[in-house]
Structures are given as C-alpha cells and as structure tokens.
Amino acid sequence: RIGRWAAPVESLHNCPCPDMEKVVLVTGANSGIGLALCERLLTEDSQLLLCLACRNMKRAEDARSALLTSHINAHIDLLHLDVGSVQSVLTAAQEVKARYNRIDFLYLNAGIMPNPQVDVKALFKGLFSRNVINMFATAEGLLTQQDRLNSDGLQEVFATNLFGHFLLIRELEPLLCPGGQTSRIVWTSSSNARRSAFSIEDIQHRNGTEPYSSSKYASDMLSLALNRHKNSQGLFSSVICPGLVMTNLTYGILPSFFWTLIMPIMWLIRIFTNTFTLTPYNGAEALHWLFVQNPESLDPRAKYHSLTSGLGKNYTQSRQVSNQRPLLPQTLYCSSLLYVNLR
C-alpha cells in the first residue's frame, strides 16, 4: 500500500530526529478547507512533511499534484483513510506508525452532512428578517439530515465526524508528544455545533434529525476533555469554526441554481458580518493561525473562529465553548467505551 499511494520512498522514512521538519497529517485534505489549509501550511513552512489523508485516492493524487505545482520541492505523502470506517482507520493508523516516529500536527478536518433537508418556508422567511445573518451562519432551524447506519453498525455522521477521528487519536497515541515533545490536534468544527442538538444519552444521535450539529458539538466537548486529560503530557487540542464557507458540502444543501441566485446577496451581507468567510482559503484562517501559535499560550476552552472583514481582511478570534462540565468526562467515557468495544 505504501508503494502504491505514497510519495517516493525517500520521503517516507520514520522521521529520524526532532530537529527535522514538522510532520503534519490532514484528514479530508483533497478539496475545500482541507486543501486550502495544505496550501497555506506549505507557504508558511516549505520544510514540513505533509500527509494528505483522504478517502478518494484519485482526488488525493490530484490534490498532491496541484500542491506540487506551486511548491515543487514540498514533501507530500498520501494516506488512504476513510474515517467513517473502523477498519480503514485501524489500517491507516498502522501505516502511519510504520512511516513516522511522531506527529506534530493532526488536523481533523474530514466531515460529512448527508442528505440535508432545508425548511424552505423558514429559509424564505429568514431572508427577509433581522435574523438573516445568523440563519446563514448557523443554519439554526433551517437544516435537518437523514442519517443511516454504516457497515460497522454506527450512525454514519457520528462515525465520520467524531468517532473515526477519536479512534485515530487513540491509535496514534505513541506518535503524539513522544519523548517530551508537544503535539497538536486541531478539529474543524462548525457554527452549527449546538448544545440543543446533542444528548449524552444518545451520543450517536440515533433518535434525532440534526446529526451534523450533534457531532460537531460533541467534537467541541471531546476537545475540551482531551485538554483536561492530556495537556500535562504535552498533547494540546484546539477546535475551530471556519465560518460560512462555500464548499462541496455547502453546495450540496441547496440546488445549484439557488446558490447562483443568492450568492450576490451573500457577498453583500459580508460587508456587515465577519462570519461570512465564503472561500476555503478564508475559512482555513484559524487552522493556519493555530499552526504558528505556542500551544501553551492558547485557551484550552476556546473555539477559534475564522473571520473575514467587509474589506476582505482575514483574522482569527477566540470565543469560549459553552461550558458544559458534566458532559466532558461523559463524552470522553462514551467515546472510549466505543473504542474498546470496536477495537
């Protein structure tokens, strides 16, 4: 598998020593925010070793080629990873441990929103209300999804957006903060992450209609729990919100003709709000910003938001994740219990 999917063998060695390039693994890296992040990271640090962890290897190859066009000397490896499949995660983790002896940054960016259903009445009502900006920014009261079981018997959204990434973290623990070094985990969350959609008694959201919102809120809680348990060992977790970004996931919510109609309105609204980042490059702002920060200086309870001013200036702002202390150990416990049962 390594010979087939990866970069030339000489770039795959178990990264031999601490003073060499950073090792960065990005899930969902072949398009959208993930690909934009990779571009920004290589511009920031041309010496890093970048691993694109993707489900579709043809698209991963295309992404690697595009990145090498503008960064011809970059070290870019490919990894076949479907975070929605337990076996794929376990296989990929073994491959990562065979290639590298550490991971400096683990960007957990892959995610799905299957079969989104829009409340059209609420949409048109919101377009002509004072709530229009919040409606587009959070999709609150606007979106539901039809989830389903995957081949592992897990809810597909939960498995892809949360559990597969948690499983990856647990499997890669030997490479995270080895030998007293620090390692970073960064989750791509959403403004759609809402406490009201999440229940610790139904962590997979089997009985609800907002699995995407539930899974993103759970990732916020899991990041907080990881910081509580792992900061002392040198592992730091952060969570970001990319703002409203036009990606394949976003475009799948409504028919293409509708986006064509409302895009001029959205660009106009952007003058009055900083949460409409719109492009993947802008949406990756907080992900890139965290790359250059000292982890000890970060607030473990914050969500870092990508923001774009009306004049097009990108910046990052921290906002507190809603404090739900009782949920932290329970979220970690439930995820750990699933890990043990499915491992």
Automatic annotation (TrEMBL):
Keywords: Endoplasmic reticulum, Glycoprotein, Lipid biosynthesis, Lipid metabolism, Membrane, NAD, NADP, Oxidoreductase, Steroid biosynthesis, Transmembrane, Transmembrane helix. Its main location: endoplasmic reticulum. It is found in: Endoplasmic reticulum membrane. It is a single-pass membrane protein. The chain crosses the membrane at residues 249-269. GO terms for biological process: cholesterol biosynthetic process; estrogen biosynthetic process. The keyword NADP applies. It catalyses: a 3beta-hydroxysteroid + NADP(+) = a 3-oxosteroid + NADPH + H(+); 5alpha-androstane-3beta,17beta-diol + NADP(+) = 17beta-hydroxy-5alpha-androstan-3-one + NADPH + H(+); 4alpha-methyl-5alpha-cholest-7-en-3beta-ol + NADP(+) = 4alpha-methyl-5alpha-cholest-7-en-3-one + NADPH + H(+); 4alpha-methyl-5alpha-cholest-8-en-3-one + NADPH + H(+) = 4alpha-methyl-5alpha-cholest-8-en-3beta-ol + NADP(+). GO terms for cellular component: endoplasmic reticulum membrane. InterPro entries: 3KSR/17beta-HSD, HSD17B7/Erg27, NAD(P)-bd_dom_sf, SDR_fam. CDD domains: 3KS_SDR_c (cd08941). It comes from the Eukaryota. The keyword Nucleotide-binding does not apply. Its EC number is 1.1.1.210, 1.1.1.270, 1.1.1.62. GO terms for molecular function: 3-beta-hydroxysteroid 3-dehydrogenase (NADP+) activity; 5-alpha-androstane-3-beta,17-beta-diol dehydrogenase (NADP+) activity; estradiol 17-beta-dehydrogenase [NAD(P)+] activity. Pathway: Steroid biosynthesis; zymosterol biosynthesis; zymosterol from lanosterol: step 5/6; Steroid biosynthesis; estrogen biosynthesis. Gene3D superfamilies: NAD(P)-binding Rossmann-like Domain (3.40.50.720). Belongs to the short-chain dehydrogenases/reductases (SDR) family. ERG27 subfamily. Binds to the short form of prolactin receptor. This is 3-keto-steroid reductase/17-beta-hydroxysteroid dehydrogenase 7. The gene is LOC116045810.
